[in-house]
Amino acid sequence: MDFLWKKVSEKEKEEIQKKAKTMMDSFSKRLSKIDKNIKAPLIERGIGEREESIEESNDDFSRKIMFENAQNKNKDFVIAEKGGWREE
Q: How far is the C-alpha of 12 from the C-alpha of 7, rounded, in Å?
């Protein structure tokens, strides 16, 4: 993790601050040129959201599907690897 940290001299700090200020000033100038009177969108849609409904779930059915899809399983448990996917 040492490669992520670099000691920065005072001169480098000043250069970084100047570059950052230049970038922010440039960005703010460009933003000020944008038309602030944004018109409403031209796309009109009918119903945009689905109606909420209450559905009962069948926990036994969900459990059965989960166990069918699990690669490693025991009688009552799914056996998963413990962090083997992580790079260290």
A: 10
